């Protein structure tokens, strides 16, 4: 499986009360599980700084990763950047 890092920055329109973020996160997660069954969530992190959320996912179908990112953007009212991540050992071996 290919590993991807999804970097998200929430827009001010994402929610008006921080408590609402739980509902928003559940909605986005449920939508991705339903519409992108090949995407496996490995970990999610809240971050402090320019980005708000870092998700680590795995998937063999880049089209499903693209769709998951679009769902995060549309339902989560976020901007995203998606990176392909190669395990360090594999990277070094390929050099």
Task: Describe, in plain words, how this protein is organized in 3D.
This protein is α+β, with helices and mostly antiparallel strands. The protein has one domain: 2-Layer Sandwich (Alpha-Beta Plaits), CATH 3.30.70. It is built from 3 helices and 4 strands, in the order βαββαβα. The protein is globular, with a radius of gyration of 14 Å.
Unreliably modeled segments: none
Q: Note the total helix count.
A: 3
CATH topology: Alpha-Beta Plaits
Strand order of the largest sheet: 2-3-1-4
How big a fraction of the residues is strand?
A: 25-35%
Terminal CA distance reads 21 Å
Please report the first level of CATH classification, the CATH class: Alpha Beta
The main sheet comes to: 4 strands, antiparallel
Secondary structure: number of strands: 4
CATH architecture field: 2-Layer Sandwich
Q: Which outline best applies?
A: globular
Can you tell me the CATH superfamily? Answer: Dimeric alpha+beta barrel
User: How many discrete structural domains?
Assistant: 1
Radius of gyration: 14 Å
Query: Which bin fits the share of residues in helices?
Result: 25-40%
Order of helices and strands: EHEEHEH
Mean pLDDT: 93
Structural class: alpha+beta
List the helices and strands and how they pair.
Blueprint: E1 2-10, H1 20-35, E2 40-46, E3 53-59, H2 62-75, E4 78-85, H3 88-94
Antiparallel strand pairs: 1-3, 1-4, 2-3
Helix pairs in contact: 1-2
Keywords:
single chain, 95 residues, alpha+beta, Alpha-Beta Plaits, four-stranded antiparallel β-sheet
């Amino acid at each position: 499986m290919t590993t991807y890092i999804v970097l998200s920055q929430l827009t001010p329109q994402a929610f008006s009360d921080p408590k609402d973020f739980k509902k928003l996160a559940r909605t986005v997660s449920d939508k991705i599980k339903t519409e992108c069954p090949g995407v496996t969530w490995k970990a999610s992190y809240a971050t402090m700084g320019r980005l708000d959320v870092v998700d680590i996912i795995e998937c063999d179908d880049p089209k499903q990763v693209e769709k998951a990112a679009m769902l995060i953007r549309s339902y989560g009212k976020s901007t995203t950047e998606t990176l392909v991540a190669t395990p360090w050992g594999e990277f070094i071996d390929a050099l």
